[in-house]
Amino acid sequence: MNPPTLHAHHITDIQTSSQAASALKPIAGEFAFLLFSLGIIGTGLLALPVLAGSAAYAMAGTFRWKNSLALEPQLAKRFYGIIVLATLVGLALDFTSIDPIRALFWSAVINGVTSVPIMVLMMLMASNQKVMGTFVTPVPLRVLGWLSTGVMAAAVIAMFVFI
């Protein structure tokens, strides 16, 4: 017996959160909306602290602020301020008319497109002895890294070709 899937039930075009929850009905039955809600809440509870923390570390690293979750808030005010600000911005998005399904789609597209130049820079830095010193990436890892970068670039090019 094949497991039930959305595509098998001809559910292939989901545009809203409500449609996504309804799409789970063939699999989850009357618990579809509860399952979807718990999934979204769980994802948010996992993602929001990670995104807020990474934004704070990025900002603190860029501006050379004190940064560590091990520090007391009064010792790293700007670092913790970014965490609070990023959390509030994430929370505020819930009260806008932004469609969460569309936002997820476009954030994935942006992440995919921007990952290619980041991967190229990382590979160039990891291969450069002036940057890495004795920690230069070994040849097998460089080959895999460049292969991964090429696959990602091909995926981005294919996306733009077939849009």
Automatic annotation (TrEMBL):
Kindly provide the name given to this protein in its UniProt entry. Natural resistance-associated macrophage protein
List locations, semicolon-separated.
Membrane
GO function term, MF aspect, one: metal ion transmembrane transporter activity
For this UniProt record, give its keywords in alphabetical order, as a comma-separated list. Answer: Membrane, Transmembrane, Transmembrane helix
Any Pfam family matching the protein: Nramp
Q: Which GO terms describe its cellular component?
A: membrane
Taking the first listed entry, what is the main subcellular location of this protein, grouped into a coarse class?
A: membrane
Topology class, membrane = Multi-pass membrane protein
Provenance organism:
Caballeronia telluris
| Chain ranges passing through the membrane | 31-58, 79-98, 104-127, 139-162
According to the UniProt entry, the coiled-coil residues are none
Instruction: Specify the domain of life of the species encoding this protein.
Output: Bacteria
